[in-house]
Structures are given as structure tokens and as C-alpha cells.
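User: Hey, my collaborator sent me this sequence without any context and asked if I could get a structure. I don't really work with proteins. Can you help?
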Amino acid sequence: MSSPSHIPPGPPADDASRADIGIVCALPMECAPLLERCQHVRKYSGGRFVFRGGRLDDVRIVVVETGPGASLAARGTRALIDAHRPDWVISAGFSGALTESVQRNHIVVGTAIRAADARELAFDLTFQGDAAAGQHAGRLLNADRIIRTVEEKRTLGEETGCLAVDLESFAVADVCREQSQKFLAIRVISDDFEADLPPEAVAIFSTSGEKRWGAVAGSLWNRPSSAQDLLQLRDQAHAAAESLAKFLIEMIDQLKPRS
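Assistant: No problem. I've predicted the 3D structure and written it out in C-alpha cell form, which is a compact way to encode the shape of the chain:
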């Protein structure tokens, strides 16, 4: 259980109602396209976390933006469960491909998640995937840092047999395991084997707020050619988030309570 400091203060009365689907993401950009498709979206802060709740047709959705990394993801997941008691919790966001068959904007639904310390959680899923449609079911790897180069991603994929890597899914899954909470990991590939991520990606995806953009501004000063890299990275992130939103909408329709 989380300590009292991890439990956000009560939101407005109607936001405190139980959610059908709770989504944990690290960065606002990851779930922005999904929230744009929701109605009556409201925002509030609980502790250090930002919550956004709304309706996707008749499904009540709450998204918590935790910031990057396992520790924040775990705390944010506890806060989400404490405040909204969702039927399902989904760890959603960007990931890096660990095999050439998984390409940018493809979706990976986790059948198991391997932590950086080799612990592993497995899930009983009926989702089979459809490689031709860019949808995969398989193992995810959680790292403790951004995996930036194609060479390192290839090595990790060969060593672990995982399809994709991110920073938060294992932590979210572990909290859900502790609390007997139904869980899914749904990740979109934002970077594949086409090229290494630019060095500035570490600043963008592994920090948040003023620190993140301060680091980006510094990179533009130190490496002027990074401006084009950052524009390309932004466009790729937006496209990945759109792909994630479309898949989440399909999955949420399958998960929603039936009368």
C-alpha cells in the first residue's frame, strides 16, 4: 500500500467516481490524441501528478501523467487506483523496438514484462496480434534508462526475446499485481531500427517540465544541427501517439462493462 503522501487530495466530487478504465502514461504527449477524442475532459492535480478524466462514448476514462521512470509510475498507479478504483489499468505510451519485425507506429500488447533486474510478470491474454496490421502480442522489457542506439536494442532483443522496451510498464504491472487489479500493457513503437535516437531524445523522454526543455535548449546551442533532428522526433512522436489512440479506442470498446 502507498503511504499517505502518495494519495492525492480529493478531486471534485464528480471526478471521485469510479472509472471504467485507468491509464498510466509518463508524458502528456503520449495520451493527448486519446483525450482529444474524449468528451467532458476535466483536469486536476493530486500530489505531484496530473489527472485528466472524461468519457469516450459511455466509458469513463481517467489518465494519470506520472513523469518518466519506474518509481513515479508506481506512485502514480497507486494514486490512480486509490482515487478512482478503475476496472482496468493500462500502462500506455511510447516504446522502442527490439526486433526488426516491430516497426514504428506498430502496437505491442504485453504478454509478459521483464524488469531490468530480470524479474518477470506474465499475463493470461487472449489477444493474438496481427503482424500485417502492425499489432503484436509479446514480451516487453523495462529498462532503467532510454535505449538510444539500434545496436543496443538489437542486442537486448536477442538476449531477452522481448519485442519492445520502455521505462514504466513493469512498475505499473507490479502495483496492479499487489492490488489484484486487472492490467494491460499497450505500447506503441516510437523508434525502431531505422536509426539511432538523437542524443537530445534522452532529455525529452526521460525528464519532464522545465528541466526537459532547458536541456533541449542547451542542445540547440551546443549542436545547431539538432534542430532538424528534434523536429523529426516531434513528428514521429505525434504519429506514434495517434496510432496508440486508435488502438486504445478499439481495446477500450472491448474492455468496457456490458449491460
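In plain terms: The domain at 19-194+242-255 is CATH 3.40.50.1580 (Rossmann fold). You can pass these C-alpha cells on to your collaborator as they are.
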